Structures are given as C-alpha cells and as structure tokens.
Amino acid sequence: MNWSQQWHGFWHGQIGEWILTRGLRIVMLVLAAMLAARFVNWIAQKVTQRIDADFRESDALVRSETTKHRQAVASVISWVTIAMLVVIVFVEFTDILAIPIASLVAPAAVIGAALGFGAQRLVQDLLSGFFIITEKQYGFGDLVALTVSGIALPAEGTVIDVTLRVTKLRSSEGEMLTIPNGQIVKTVNLSKDWARAVVDIPVPVTADLHTVNDLLNGVCESAMNDPQMRELLLDKPQVMGVESIQVDTVNLRMVARTLPGKQFEVGRRLRLLVIAALAGAGIASPAETSTLAPAVAQEPKQ
C-alpha cells in the first residue's frame, strides 16, 4: 500500500503532472515532427523515382531539361520543408515550456549577430543554390564542369544531387564530389539542350588535302548512315577545314552536333571511322611518317 500510495502521489505531484501534460506534449510533438520529416523524404524519393522511371520507360536517349529541373526542385522542396518543420517545432517548444517570445529577442539578436559573422559562407551557399535552381543552370543528370574558388582544375562530373547548400557530382573515375554552391565561380554545362563533338585529325604535310577532305566528307556521310550514330547525331557532321599548321603536320577539324552528354561517345566513333578511312586510302599518320624518315635517310646510295 505504501508503494502504491507513493506511485499515486508521484503522478499527482508537480513532476508527474508536468510529465503528463507538457512532457507528453513534447514527446508527441517530436514524434510527429520525425514522422512528418520521414514522410516528406519518402514523397521526395517517390517523385524522383517516378520521374526517373518515366525517363527509363520512354524511348529518349537523354533526359529532357524539364525532367532534370523537376528532380532538382523536388530535392530542394524536401530540404526546405524539413527546415520549416524544425522552426515550427522550436516555436511549439517555447509555447509548451511557457517561454515568452519577448524574452528571446535580446538573446536572438546576439546569436543572430554571431551567426551573421560565422555563417556568412552558409548564407552565401544558400543564396547561390537558390539562383542555380531558379535559373536552371544545371539539374539532375547533367554533365558539368564547375570552377571552384581556390582550386586550379575544374570539378567535372555528372550531377547526382542538387540542394540549396551543396552540389554533388560523380566523376568519371567513380568519385563523388561535394561542392558548396557558394564556392562555385563558373558553371559549364556540357549537356544543356545539345552538345558538340570536336575531332581534330592530324595529317602529314605531304598528304593531298583535297583527297583528305573528300575522305572526311565520306566519313560524315557514313556516320549518318550508321544506325547507332544516327540516333545520337542531330545533324550531319561537318569538316571545318584546316585548324592549325605545324612543322610536319596539318590539323583538320570535324564537328558534329549531338544529343546532350553524347559528344564523347560520338567523338570516339568518329575517330574510328576517320582512322579506318585514312588507313584504307594509304595516308600515313604523322607518327608513321616521322619513323619512316630516318630509315629513308639511312638507305645506301646507289
């Protein structure tokens, strides 16, 4: 009976009453916020998976600009919603604990000033991320080269996630790069609407350029007749002519407008066709010409 009376008295005391009233409300509020955050993340993942599934089920070889932008916006909306939940939970805490908001004005001003000096980079990242999303500079699946302040070489890779604070890239070596948006100085989108494959062909100065131009024009025609190449090309490749002249070589340039992000694949296939065409016509490469030259010079005189 003593233990029962003590237990009954505990729940009717100040501590028990606080637990049953304010403590229970705090626990319910935290659980509701956690469930809401998980629900928001679940919705964002479902939306992203649905957009990605629509792309995979379609006949398109690359993602459209609308699809890439929608995936980025879905990620940002989920992040902002969770941040708003945190603010709402904090305000409800002050209400449950009966903390007057007016008493928080002075501490908030001091904390705000401290955060203003210490979190300048964070605010810069958030503002930069906002403009990246609204201006559609790049989106999910884009191939980009980002110039980052303090780093000499640009960060290149495929965008796998975009938030208001950071951009995550997957490099060609499989590395994941996390870059704060505020440190991005210049953005080069290599897969915006369309791309261009550029192929430079070095030929020896002794070669007949008219014959080489005819061969390269034939390569352009054969590229359009190739079923795999025709799906990646937006129009017929073009021979631009002589790009540069060196001591023993002449560089010709061929360009082709391709689907976004497919310029590297098209460039590799064009090089194979060019090498086969030049080899079939008996036009030696500059390296072969330079190795044959000493052998000819060492031939005995008749």
From TrEMBL:
<dbReference type="InterPro" id="IPR006685">
    <property type="entry name" value="MscS_channel_2nd"/>
</dbReference>
<dbReference type="InterPro" id="IPR011014">
    <property type="entry name" value="MscS_channel_TM-2"/>
</dbReference>
<dbReference type="InterPro" id="IPR010920">
    <property type="entry name" value="LSM_dom_sf"/>
</dbReference>
<dbReference type="InterPro" id="IPR023408">
    <property type="entry name" value="MscS_beta-dom_sf"/>
</dbReference>
<comment type="similarity">
    <text>Belongs to the MscS (TC 1.A.23) family.</text>
</comment>
<feature type="transmembrane region" description="Helical">
    <location>
        <begin position="72"/>
        <end position="91"/>
    </location>
</feature>
<feature type="domain" description="Mechanosensitive ion channel MscS C-terminal">
    <location>
        <begin position="198"/>
        <end position="284"/>
    </location>
</feature>
<keyword id="KW-1003">Cell membrane</keyword>
<dbReference type="Pfam" id="PF21082">
    <property type="entry name" value="MS_channel_3rd"/>
</dbReference>
<dbReference type="GO" id="GO:0005886">
    <property type="term" value="C:plasma membrane"/>
</dbReference>
<dbReference type="GO" id="GO:0008381">
    <property type="term" value="F:mechanosensitive monoatomic ion channel activity"/>
</dbReference>
<dbReference type="InterPro" id="IPR049278">
    <property type="entry name" value="MS_channel_C"/>
</dbReference>
<dbReference type="InterPro" id="IPR011066">
    <property type="entry name" value="MscS_channel_C_sf"/>
</dbReference>
<dbReference type="InterPro" id="IPR045276">
    <property type="entry name" value="YbiO_bact"/>
</dbReference>
<protein>
    <submittedName>
        <fullName>Small-conductance mechanosensitive channel</fullName>
    </submittedName>
</protein>
<keyword id="KW-0812">Transmembrane</keyword>
<keyword id="KW-0472">Membrane</keyword>
<dbReference type="Pfam" id="PF00924">
    <property type="entry name" value="MS_channel_2nd"/>
</dbReference>
<feature type="domain" description="Mechanosensitive ion channel MscS">
    <location>
        <begin position="122"/>
        <end position="191"/>
    </location>
</feature>
<keyword id="KW-1133">Transmembrane helix</keyword>
<feature type="transmembrane region" description="Helical">
    <location>
        <begin position="97"/>
        <end position="117"/>
    </location>
</feature>
<feature type="transmembrane region" description="Helical">
    <location>
        <begin position="20"/>
        <end position="40"/>
    </location>
</feature>
